[in-house]
Amino acid sequence: MPKRPMRFRLGLMLAIGAALAFSADASAQTSDQQGAPRARKPADQATSNQPFDARNLTAIWLLRTPFAGISNTPPPLTAWGQTKYLANKPSYGPRAVPPAEGNDVIGNCDPIGFPRNLFSPSRPVQFVQLPNELLQVFQYHGVWRQIWSDGRALPKDPDPSWYGYSVGHWDGDTFVINTIGLDESTWLDHFGYPHSAEMKVEERYHRVDHDTIQLVLTVDDPKTYTKLWVSPTKIFKLTPEQALEEDYCVPSQEQYFNSTMRNPADGKANR
Fold it and tell me: What's the rounded mean pLDDT across residues 154-166?
């Protein structure tokens, strides 16, 4: 009998994460709207007294902000953006449909891309800081992202790709990354918010103590949104005891999961 695919465990974890995200109370939503960090649990509030280099981000980090997306208050969509948004059929959020009726790229093991892969509430990301570049290695889908920090400019007309073209520089003790050239077939999050190939993304990483990085992310996509989409401050915590696990999306396992579990659950056994 075939083994139960890894996808089952991953899907369950995502479902739990989404449920936790939607349990956030009104005060957390207000904090999002004001761009302020949410209230943290006492363990997350503790500031490490260990020495650290604010300009060294090398470590394995895990997102600790409950809402697994840019924020729960997106800016208004343009007419083009609204058409794209309505065409997306996510399995999470206010427009959720049964997975068998959805069109999320993860259902076919297609790359989920950037910035969506940053927002996994259960999979860590490793930062590897090198002399002329920063690498982000994502556990989810086992992919890496290259951010050049050698002073080069962004290209004028990059070919679209899943993770775009990124350059970074230090602004004091904040590492600033600018990314363009992102393939518009990906979503910004698992709620199905779209973007265009013209989108620009800025990330600002600030290591505030030995165990904590703060991130503010800004989406600039006037073709899709009528104003900038600025995230609340997101918190990444150091996970020194955790190594990146093998966490690939395997097409054969995904097809088995779809045919034996996802589709029959929605009455589509032969799909």
Answer: 96
